[in-house]
Automatic annotation (TrEMBL):
Protein name as it appears in the record: Molybdopterin molybdenumtransferase
Residues in MoaB/Mog domain copies: 185-320
GO CC annotation terms, alphabetical: cytosol
Cofactors required: Mg(2+)
EC numbers for this chain: 2.10.1.1
Ranges for region Disordered: 1-23
Stored Pfam families: MoCF_biosynth (PF00994), MoeA_C (PF03454), MoeA_N (PF03453)
Single Gene Ontology MF annotation: molybdopterin molybdotransferase activity
Function summary: Catalyzes the insertion of molybdate into adenylated molybdopterin with the concomitant release of AMP.
Family the UniProt entry places it in: Belongs to the MoeA family.
Length: 397
């Protein structure tokens, strides 16, 4: 990463917020730099992932000399005396053929040593245990390793795991694939939060813990765990350095109140700040930092603002770490309907419904509310001093 990514040296005046598009770019760049160690995932879980290491052939393809046709495996010039039958997967009927011998053979069955070719039924005549016909030397046998040699590199790091890749990997003897799957732990702070039932007087039900995992899976990352902490600096400092995760998300604590310890804790643990505050509404108190290979993302406590910060920093960061495109990114721009007032300095992010090629605000978009987001297909990106031109969208999962 260039020095200019770091908030402390970026030329952002003290207290100034990073322009919203620049904040997203910084998150994506940091993610590309912090690619996590690949994790070996069972084939059934690897679909859609990106390989974090090359994949080699554990066996050759084919793994053994096998018949490519139903017919007769033959040795030497014809005619051939039939000496057995070889089915696929069955024990060897005959270890080797001598010249002038044949075994009846099924497609995919191992051919005996000494086999020179396979004569398909259609080209063979069988008479009283003797096979006749014209052969072409070497034909209709799939020779061991002719498609892929054992040990060959068949897929390179950065390839996407598609259904065909899963089939190929299985054919080459793999039970797992090394996939980039960033591990993300979520620390939800706030003495006022509860996690089940009605919140009670002066308490608030945690709305961020339940919404983060869906964004993680969508962006190609995995939830390492969610922990609820009070507004306690020592507990937060211990939790952010707990290890095991590639990304630590801290919800709440991002602002400047007496219980907002995130900045102090990041400084205490020696994390380097990349973004401190983003010029967007809602969601300006967002933080992006890293220490070694671990990234830290601070989300505002207001749930609607937290969701915007997830789309601004967390999704670009982890999708880049996973080697994937940002799933929120949408090509092209759309006409934004309705009365929308731009902000003079900040980018506004508005939950919208998509109707054809137009976007219509759904309302209910206060920072503390997720109601608008729950009704929306996407967020419209309204730049500062917007002049009514078509706007970019951020898609929602
Ligand atoms: N002096 C300033 N005060 C505030 C500023 C500012 O710039 N200067 N920014 C305001 C904005 S904007 C936001 S957003 C909040 C961000 O504050 P924190 O990230 O420190 O979050 P808290 O203060 O803990 O909580 C804010 C609000 O959200 C509720 N909350 C917190 N966590 C959750 C959760 N997991 N689920 C549901 N609701 C949650 C919390 O109860 C508060 O009502 O700071 C403003 N202040
Ligand atoms: O992040 Mo705050 O309003 O922008 O909720």
């Amino acid at each position: 990463m260039s020095c200019s990514d770091h908030a402390s040296r970026a030329g952002d005046p003290p207290g100034a917020h990073r322009e919203w598009p620049r904040a997203r770019e910084a998150a994506e760049r940091l993610g590309a730099r912090l690619a996590p160690a690949p994790r070996d995932l069972p084939l059934g879980r690897a679909l859609g992932g990106v390989l974090g290491a090359d994949v080699t052939a554990l066996v050759g393809l084919p793994a053994f000399d096998a018949s490519a046709m139903d017919g007769y495996a033959v040795a030497g010039p014809g005619p051939w005396r039939l000496v057995g039958t070889q089915l696929a997967g069955a024990p060897s009927a005959r270890e080797a053929l001598a010249p002038g011998q044949a075994v009846e053979i099924a497609t995919g069955a191992r051919v005996p040593k000494g086999t020179e070719s396979v004569l398909p039924y259609e080209r063979a005549a069988l008479d009283d245990g003797v096979v006749g016909g014209e052969i072409e030397r070497g034909r209709h046998v799939r020779w061991a390793g002719e498609e892929t040699e054992p040990g060959a590199t068949v897929l390179t790091r950065g390839s996407r795991v598609t259904p065909a890749v899963l089939g190929l990997a299985a054919g080459l003897g793999h039970d797992t694939l090394p996939v980039l799957l960033p591990q993300v732990s979520v620390l939800v702070t706030g003495d006022e939060l509860t996690t089940s039932g009605l919140p009670g007087e002066g308490r608030v039900r945690d709305a961020i813990g339940p919404l983060v995992p869906g964004f993680l899976g969508w962006a190609g990352a995995e939830l390492h765990g969610v922990r609820h902490l009070g507004d306690d600096r020592a507990a937060l400092a211990a939790a952010v350095t707990d290890g095991g995760a590639d990304v630590v998300v801290v919800c709440g604590s991002s602002s400047k109140g007496p219980a907002d310890h995130l900045r102090a804790v990041l400084a205490q643990v020696g994390a380097e700040t990349v973004v401190d505050g983003v010029a967007c509404r809602p969601g300006h108190p967002q933080v992006l930092a890293h220490r070694g290979g671990t990234a830290f993302v601070g989300l505002p406590g207001n749930p609607g603002a937290a969701l915007v910060a997830i789309l601004t920093l967390l999704v670009p960061l982890v999708s880049a770490m996973a080697g994937r495109p940002d799933p929120a990114r949408s090509p092209g721009a759309v006409v934004l309907e309705g009365e929308v007032a731009p902000h003079p300095r900040d980018t506004r992010l508005l939950p919208v419904r998509l109707i054809g090629d137009r976007a219509r605000p759904v309302g209910h978009d206060r920072p503390g509310s997720l109601r608008g987001a729950a009704l929306a297909d996407a967020y419209a990106v309204v730049p500062p001093r917007w002049d009514g031109a078509p706007v970019e969208l951020l898609l929602l999962p």
